[in-house]
Amino acid sequence: MADQDTVKYDGPAGGWGSLRGITRIFGKEWPTPGVLDTLAHQNKPGGFMCTSCAWTKPANHNAFEFCENGAKATLWELTTRRCTPDFFAKHTVSELRDWTDHDLEQTGRLTHPLRYDRELDTYVACSWDEAFSAIGRELKSLDPKSAVFYASGRASLETSYLYALFARLYGNNNLPDSSNMCHETTSVALKKVIGAPVGTSVYEDFSTCDAIFFFGQNTGSNSPRFLHPLQDAVKRGCRIVTFNPVRERGLEAMINPQSPTEMLTGQETQISSYYLQVKAGGDIAALMGLCKHVLAKDDEARSSGRSVLDRDFIDQHTHDFEAFEQLVRSTPWEQIEHESGLTRDALEQAGQVYVEAERVIGIYGMGLTQQVHGFDNIGMFVNLLLMKGNIGRDGTGISPVRGHSNVQGQRTVGISEKPELVPLDRLEEMFGFTAPREKGLTTVDACQGILDGTVKAFIGLGGNFVRAIPEQGAMEEAWPRMRLTVQIATKLNRSHLFNGDIAYLLPCLGRSEEDLQEAGPQIVTIEDTFSCIHGSIAKRKPASEHLKSELAIVAGIAKETLAPNPKVRWDEWTGDYSKVRDLIEATYPDQFHDFNARVFTPGGFYRGNSARERIWKTESGKAEFTLPKQLSAAGFADSAGRYRLITLRSNDQFNTTVYGYSDRLRGIEGTRSVLLMSPSEIRKAGLREGQVVGLSSDADDGRKRYVGGLTVTPFDLPNGCIAGYYPELNPLIPLSHHDQHSKTPASKAVPVQIVT
Ligand SMILES: Nc1nc2c(c(=O)[nH]1)N[C@H]1C(S)=C(S)[C@@H](COP(=O)(O)OP(=O)(O)OC[C@H]3O[C@@H](n4cnc5c(=O)[nH]c(N)nc54)[C@H](O)[C@@H]3O)O[C@H]1N2
Ligand SMILES: Nc1nc2c(c(=O)[nH]1)N[C@H]1C(S)=C(S)[C@@H](COP(=O)(O)OP(=O)(O)OC[C@H]3O[C@@H](n4cnc5c(=O)[nH]c(N)nc54)[C@H](O)[C@@H]3O)O[C@H]1N2
Ligand SMILES: [Mo]
To answer: Would the pLDDT of 201 be above 80?
Structure first.
């Protein structure tokens, strides 16, 4: 229930608010001419593929197939502001550490390759040749195992393939990706239980499903174009059930900004039939409750000769059902209610939607993956779907909504610290080398290595690693102890302000900018959340004549680092990306056959998924039921004064890129330094609205971590849970606080105390 005192936005998602959001950025960013043309072609076949989220780019697209956030991302990239060497001549790097994330990126596009000058404590312009040879020289002198090659999920399939190849030719599998902070739980859990590391639904499934269960994914902010098929589904009678501690407006109601009637009449569509405010970390218990209801209904049905469970599917296609059934039956409702924070009644009502639906899709996001027992969250969600054969049938499926626009694709073409997921034998044959076979470093391992001094070099292909990771205080201190740090980026961010002995900041083209190489303008490709591959072609004039493409930068560094090898042709590949697509096809012939010919397939080409065909590449050869050992996903015990902190994104940010200070959908304006708390918790803690407080870590390691200056803001949240913004609260997350199987940092239930 919403509390009267709660700050909240009563408007729907989409609607006029989203248009105002776009026009505000338009005013602020002075985008280059031609930006409207770019937006008109955004996410359409033969057009440019947005750099914001990984939502699909359908063949039967809308007139404008971009959302508020996609438009913001494009405008942010096509700004006329420039961050030049003159800017750095006026500001030291130490001084810039006091700037906000917003202000750093607001300086505009980076224009020149830059070297960090320690004496001047600032960046100075250098030549590309200087940068490449200095980086190559340093990498050659280091043990390859001590270097990390991070990627943030945006770079194309072509660049990503070559980046991963470079790391392996150099001698390591140290290829962590933003996915390691995000959906790595998915890659590990789904691989284990259904034998495929990605979701099984495709876009068309949304037109035939009868129910959609949402766990911890915030569609309105993070994948707004998904609201269109959702709205259509609701209109044809599909029921939506949401589990989320926060009442997110996008999952409550929406107005389609592309429908003149809806815009003029204010007619909104109610999205969720049931909205259950589960406790942060309470999903294993909530899912257990749903499964318990399904079993109870099956017992009833069986007495009259019917069945709720899909017994044929369970018998033929799954493993360990009996043990799972026993676990569900023996778990008492009181425990489920306690751990989920939900009543039996509410869970039974939601469970009944599942029982009655013939075809169900399970959607999830960071609410499930960023938990200490995130693996079990996903295992339980799959359990629920398996009970009624809701995987591998039209209109069904398990469907993680991926984050960065090409994060899934980067994993597909080899950016992975897990050598067993990469066809190393084939690479060895193609490029005549011996590939490293030892496991590489995840994000958490890389952080550990930087802290203990074993990691000596860090190359960042995009992203804002230092700001996105946990344990930010200690990490910022340790970072400068590295020998070499290199960041390939479009805009200045906090990670560029912590530098190793030798440090370079290399500016690259954005995806909306024309990429001219020897063979002419180049196409790049990306993979969306439904495993569809899309070509992207960009026409805007680059922000500076000194920029290079990401692919050319990777090739430039690789060439200076590695010994010559006639099978490795960096210049040829840089001159013509279609040759890199040929390499991808040769490496993954089943998924990427006829790659160059299929680049502009409307709606993308589907690279397939075995689990969708009910082929289970698991240990048992069947889909696995998972038996969680605990009902709480939070991974720590509750105690007096300890809260579960949820770190949230607003619709006015893309990860660490903060466009502005308007969290329109949650009604929080003008500041991000807030502590969201239910009015009853505020009273219980003896606080008052508007009071400025701090948060300190309450992890059992006893280590001091603190963030201050947070204004207590009443907000509709379950008891025991408080919330604030990512990345500002990242210093509070211990490095050891991560999913037990995948090491994804557990940013959605962090143990903290309030300090007054
Ligand atoms: N505008 C915008 N779009 C984005 C991004 C962005 O920052 N801004 N980031 C992109 C990236 S990289 C990613 S990974 C995706 C992330 O997109 P999402 O997966 O939606 O991630 P979050 O917004 O971090 O969290 C999702 C939801 O989980 C809920 N939640 C928190 N704890 C729990 C819990 O214990 N249980 C349940 N059931 N729910 C919980 C939160 O209230 C929130 O609504 O979005 C992508 N798209
Ligand atoms: N507490 C907490 N922490 C989290 C999360 C959370 O929910 N809570 N979410 C996690 C998740 S899901 C993710 S994905 C990570 C995100 O971590 P990252 O992917 O590392 O971070 P971003 O903020 O997406 O990176 C932004 C920077 O990317 C650069 N950039 C933008 N476009 C381009 C481009 O086209 N090319 C190149 N080379 N650079 C470009 C710009 O310099 C910009 O400043 O954060 C994680 N951290
Ligand atoms: Mo992400």
So the answer is: yes
